[in-house]
């Protein structure tokens, strides 16, 4: 299923299946349709909940990921969704479906990575489920977070004339994946990688969820909309555009390109823009802010040492558009990230 | 992995991976090791969280379950864990890994069953994740609940001399599964089943989570320990025994046997006791209560029309024991439910 199908499918499966009364009675503030759900909690705060699954052969294989990285990334991708709501992470449940051929030492490595991530970002792992799997490992993580009442940063609040920003370089994860798939070496450790490729491989294997950036944006009270980039800039910009009923214009000249990404693209004859737009799993935050608040946010981010790049703007013409270096504007499709196929 | 392995594995993977300070800081009241986890919530209540996964070929196949039942049971098994804490269910996230060959109409049926269960028990479905799967469907549900502060019913509080009770007939689900596996007919609807087999097939396909019983037990403040029976009486009695550091003596003569189960066992030459002890997925509640409170609970259950059977007692001799009709006592092993293998 492509990501495009995914959105249609979720709509198809869930539309009008539950009364609004029931959802209201149960304190649902934001249900299906954002990075995470938000529900009523205690008087001053709301509970944020998200889940994300990694499936062997679909999201990883022995050529692309070390076992430790599988555990780390399974939680990191969920943390990214919590960051994209501006929330503070709290508790995780882990559901693991394990094929017979997985040794306990491989599972131990997966959990080593998982706990590395949990301890780094102060997440308590409080439970889960293990079951057999006929053939492939399936790891599903559910993560909660807490956010100040009605302050969660949604996709749906972008305003025409806002500027579009991102909190880091894009396309590196997809380039790292490309390298690993070309290399075709099982269980390739970092020690065996040349220094110049490491940033790309690390971006794919150990993405850094933008927890600080998410909280900074929420606390500033100046961020209009926010999304995490799990499926490439094009897809995520489309999500903001659709949820907010606005258009987005990306300025190609303003997209920052990581020097390692550029060097690798030159080497293998690929376009960085393709990976930036249609790669995925960069897990940076993409958001919008009114022009008058850009300077304030830029200086706050600078003080924290977090990148804050302006990429474009919010316009009233629906869809996502890109302006190239010659000033030509074209519409771009919501083509998501499809891993290996 | 057998259930026996599962407990050892969970211990192996999670033991001492996180500091108690971090878990305390994050308000963890009960982490790994009960039907569900409990964390601090608002001043008067705590949040209960659980997850449970169903994997095609491991937990179901086209001979045993209709698509609608897969969705229904995926949520019902989680509800059972919430019931076993005495909590009120609240919000669910659904993670679905979908093989290419699944049609959208099959997925629609799964979600039909899922929402039937959600609406029946007033659970709000608030989000989830969909991804591809190489071959088999994997559905993982995370469910939250709410419980009065420090009132959650744990496994670990059984006292010597307590009586052991169960809230319904056991072994029916395993017998229903046996029937369906013998029958070997794909997508066998209820309409095609003879009336006398339906209670067993229904017990397997649409188990009824004991939400009312769980709340009644909590509100009575007279239940010492509680567990749900997902893996057979033997395994669950062992869990209470181990968590509470007590022994359990089951009186074979006191185990109620559903008339349909008895008739089916006579027909196919099986022992009801085997399925009661080592079958699984009955999703009734197994608990302990002091002798002086049994009568009170019995009358409360009777008024609500919920079965309340006394099965045995809590003893100080470790392990789980069974006394047969001749008065002979033997130890029984913690052999769990292994579905198809």
TrEMBL record, chains A, B:
<keyword id="KW-0479">Metal-binding</keyword>
<dbReference type="InterPro" id="IPR036921">
    <property type="entry name" value="PurM-like_N_sf"/>
</dbReference>
<dbReference type="GO" id="GO:0009030">
    <property type="term" value="F:thiamine-phosphate kinase activity"/>
</dbReference>
<dbReference type="InterPro" id="IPR016188">
    <property type="entry name" value="PurM-like_N"/>
</dbReference>
<feature type="binding site">
    <location>
        <position position="281"/>
    </location>
    <ligand>
        <name>substrate</name>
    </ligand>
</feature>
<feature type="binding site">
    <location>
        <begin position="128"/>
        <end position="129"/>
    </location>
    <ligand>
        <name>ATP</name>
    </ligand>
</feature>
<feature type="binding site">
    <location>
        <position position="81"/>
    </location>
    <ligand>
        <name>Mg(2+) 4</name>
    </ligand>
</feature>
<feature type="binding site">
    <location>
        <position position="111"/>
    </location>
    <ligand>
        <name>ATP</name>
    </ligand>
</feature>
<keyword id="KW-0784">Thiamine biosynthesis</keyword>
<keyword id="KW-0460">Magnesium</keyword>
<dbReference type="Pfam" id="PF02769">
    <property type="entry name" value="AIRS_C"/>
</dbReference>
<feature type="binding site">
    <location>
        <position position="59"/>
    </location>
    <ligand>
        <name>substrate</name>
    </ligand>
</feature>
<protein>
    <recommendedName>
        <fullName>Thiamine-monophosphate kinase</fullName>
        <ecNumber>2.7.4.16</ecNumber>
    </recommendedName>
</protein>
<feature type="binding site">
    <location>
        <position position="35"/>
    </location>
    <ligand>
        <name>Mg(2+) 3</name>
    </ligand>
</feature>
<feature type="binding site">
    <location>
        <position position="52"/>
    </location>
    <ligand>
        <name>Mg(2+) 2</name>
    </ligand>
</feature>
<feature type="binding site">
    <location>
        <position position="230"/>
    </location>
    <ligand>
        <name>ATP</name>
    </ligand>
</feature>
<dbReference type="Pfam" id="PF00586">
    <property type="entry name" value="AIRS"/>
</dbReference>
<feature type="binding site">
    <location>
        <position position="155"/>
    </location>
    <ligand>
        <name>ATP</name>
    </ligand>
</feature>
<comment type="similarity">
    <text>Belongs to the thiamine-monophosphate kinase family.</text>
</comment>
<feature type="binding site">
    <location>
        <position position="35"/>
    </location>
    <ligand>
        <name>Mg(2+) 4</name>
    </ligand>
</feature>
<feature type="binding site">
    <location>
        <position position="228"/>
    </location>
    <ligand>
        <name>Mg(2+) 3</name>
    </ligand>
</feature>
<feature type="binding site">
    <location>
        <position position="52"/>
    </location>
    <ligand>
        <name>Mg(2+) 1</name>
    </ligand>
</feature>
<comment type="pathway">
    <text>Cofactor biosynthesis; thiamine diphosphate biosynthesis; thiamine diphosphate from thiamine phosphate: step 1/1.</text>
</comment>
<feature type="binding site">
    <location>
        <position position="81"/>
    </location>
    <ligand>
        <name>Mg(2+) 2</name>
    </ligand>
</feature>
<feature type="binding site">
    <location>
        <position position="231"/>
    </location>
    <ligand>
        <name>Mg(2+) 5</name>
    </ligand>
</feature>
<feature type="binding site">
    <location>
        <position position="81"/>
    </location>
    <ligand>
        <name>Mg(2+) 3</name>
    </ligand>
</feature>
<keyword id="KW-0808">Transferase</keyword>
<feature type="binding site">
    <location>
        <position position="129"/>
    </location>
    <ligand>
        <name>Mg(2+) 1</name>
    </ligand>
</feature>
<dbReference type="InterPro" id="IPR036676">
    <property type="entry name" value="PurM-like_C_sf"/>
</dbReference>
<comment type="function">
    <text>Catalyzes the ATP-dependent phosphorylation of thiamine-monophosphate (TMP) to form thiamine-pyrophosphate (TPP), the active form of vitamin B1.</text>
</comment>
<keyword id="KW-0067">ATP-binding</keyword>
<feature type="domain" description="PurM-like N-terminal">
    <location>
        <begin position="33"/>
        <end position="147"/>
    </location>
</feature>
<dbReference type="InterPro" id="IPR006283">
    <property type="entry name" value="ThiL-like"/>
</dbReference>
<feature type="binding site">
    <location>
        <position position="337"/>
    </location>
    <ligand>
        <name>substrate</name>
    </ligand>
</feature>
<feature type="binding site">
    <location>
        <position position="50"/>
    </location>
    <ligand>
        <name>Mg(2+) 4</name>
    </ligand>
</feature>
<keyword id="KW-0547">Nucleotide-binding</keyword>
<dbReference type="InterPro" id="IPR010918">
    <property type="entry name" value="PurM-like_C_dom"/>
</dbReference>
<feature type="domain" description="PurM-like C-terminal">
    <location>
        <begin position="160"/>
        <end position="322"/>
    </location>
</feature>
<keyword id="KW-0418">Kinase</keyword>
